[in-house]
Design a protein that fits this description.
2 copies of one chain form a homodimer. The first copy, chain A, has 6 helices and 10 strands; from the N terminus they run αβαββαβββαβββααβ. Chain A is of the alpha+beta class. In chain A, strands 1, 2, 3, 4, 5, 6, 7, 8, 9 and 10 form a 10-stranded mixed β-sheet that branches. In chain A, a hairpin with a 2-residue loop joins strand 8 and strand 9.
Amino acid sequence: MDSKLATSYKNIMLILEYDGTGYHGWQRQRLEPTIQGVLEDRIQMMVHEPITLIGSGRTDAGVHAKHQVCHFLTHTHIDPESLRNGLNALTPDDILIRKADYVPLDFHSRYSVKSKVYEYQIWIRHEPNVFRRNFVWHVRQVLDVETMRQCVSLLVGRHDFSTFRSSGSGNMDPVREMIHAEIRGPEDGILTFIFEADGFLRHMIRNIVGTVVDVGRGRMGLVEFRDIFQAKDRACAGFKAPAQGLFLNMVKY
Amino acid sequence: MDSKLATSYKNIMLILEYDGTGYHGWQRQRLEPTIQGVLEDRIQMMVHEPITLIGSGRTDAGVHAKHQVCHFLTHTHIDPESLRNGLNALTPDDILIRKADYVPLDFHSRYSVKSKVYEYQIWIRHEPNVFRRNFVWHVRQVLDVETMRQCVSLLVGRHDFSTFRSSGSGNMDPVREMIHAEIRGPEDGILTFIFEADGFLRHMIRNIVGTVVDVGRGRMGLVEFRDIFQAKDRACAGFKAPAQGLFLNMVKY
């Protein structure tokens, strides 16, 4: 856009929480409900102009967010707080707009990201829990959690994560800085993986968790885990953990 | 049934956990999904004969159970553990059969009840929680929890609970023994009511909770609460708390 046009725009940032169970992920699809689709439609109803909602990244179908960030450019005179209240009234109750605010025009919810924090929850009791079923991966086997913690600590630092990316990632640079990686718990039957990185490859966390759980089950040792991590070959990794245990916890700028 | 017939029957008891969000309550309905309906259909698929599943009591639409007890008479030779595994494979994952076992023919899941324990959860933070939305009642106003605890303690003992019963309860004796009543928390944004009684009238807990929350909000005082409890008149009580905060926690025999 030219600078004259740009000055008439406002840039509005939203902070969201959502239960991804009922959605086909973030990205708008023609027929299926998605977070972006639902929000764009409701925002357009309020601001009476077409807008494009840009998220900090896409979440897959069934993945949740405790803190997702997105932004859109608009000419509206509705103040952010009224927009937030209106949107919370218009959106289904599995999406919550926690905050809405003006941000500088050069703020971009994806390009401006410094790091993101994800969490992955595993339910480790033998019996399933019907109340948590949409928010955990249920693993019945007894896990060697200490060896799993050692695997996860190997991931910290600047590494090529090719082993843990899914096909369809394109030719994107597979090197990422893993700032923090740990396993918390078990507490109340839940083991929680926490990962913070400057960026994540496609399905990277779900592939890491699936492989680390393979170690926990005794299907693979710590040395083997390190070898496949260093092999930079997707074919070596374990299987992809299911979507419903994954939460986007924070986006830092 | 005559005694010859009776001897060929087995009485099987099930202990269930369910997320009631997707169901129109316990009792079978012709068109809507219910817990009893789903289970009876699946049990009949396994035992190849018509059965009637009798629960310890009906739960309303949207009400959950951590421990519901039911039983049915059958001629089947399938052992209870195989029945449990088969049913868990056949039922949707919002219903879990935790246990299945033979019980004496004179065991009746409703008539043999000694007491039941219910729990009611209130979410008391200002901002809603999308992940707990189906399992709590969200109350935004600041609550005077200490006065609420005093109200609840008035309910313990043998009382006429007419004030808190809903119409449609028929002419059933309104006197119940409240064995235990307390409010736990707040913890992690949740206030939990616990009630144990030898029986509950229709909507009794939801009417109690709605009225006690009215006290917490300052719309009514402790003395007024005691007066309306003693008035034995449903018209005096506050409104009925919503179904989704309520859990059947235990049935004792």
